[in-house]
Amino acid sequence: HRKNDGSLERTASFSVSLTKGVWFCFGCQEKGNLRQLFDLLNEPVGSRLDAILQELRTTSAPTYNSTKPRLLEVFDEPLPEKVLGAFDECPVALVEDDGFSESTLQYFGVGYDRRNTRITFPLRDITGVLVGISGRTVTDQHPRYKVYDSEFAAYGLAARAQIRKSTILWNGDKVYQESCFRKLTSPIVIVEGFKACMRVWDAGYKNAVALLGTYLSEDQRWVLERVGAPVVLMLDRNPAGMKGM
Q: 3-class secondary structure for the chain?
């Protein structure tokens, strides 16, 4: 850019972080994510993406910083995708009682765990890696929703520590990744739970995400800020939801 007097800026006033995916100009105060930077430079994302990825691969990993969001942690042992095959049944209650189409349930990977009589919802990190399973009871089990840990032993997998729900923004992996390659044309709709997210998605608002509760964690906020799109809050209309909004 040019300075206020019209002359070219020749001092080192621009900073970009490839690990955080953000940039800032100390001269004109412009800032944004990498996609927005490519837009300002009138340069297609694809022409630079390979070079950026190669630089990330050859850069030594930074030391752990506790101030960074926990959702950036790398899972040493993500769940194998094949585990979803154990829940490859249609949850009839969501079709008959809630009116969801089978195609919608398939898109979100929703299934049914006959052994534990729970409807299953896959939990993915922002890269799309399967890191957990949440099961909703169809009987009177407690708790109503449970993030699986010891249940995996029945399917030939080691028991796992429960994933922190605060690091998950359900359907956020699709929204976040899409925003890296093109500008979102519609706002992000934030809801509380799985079914609300699928209802909003069914209504045509594909940038729907669920907090899995009424509390917006710093990890979830990190994702939303870097997507760079307006948000619409649609938490439940009850005291907890209103306080959350």
A: CECCCCCECCCCCEEEECCCCEEEECCCCCEEEHHHHHHHCCCCCHHHHHHHHHHHHHCCCCCCCCCCCHHHCCCCCCCCHHHHHHHCCCCHHHHHCCCCCHHHHHHHCCEEECCCCEEEEEEECCCCCEEEEEEEECCCCCCCEEECCHHHHHHCCCCCCCCCHHHCCECHHHHHHHHCCCCCCCCEEEECCHHHHHHHHHCCCCCEEECCCCCCCHHHHHHHHHHCCCEEECCCCCHHHHHHC
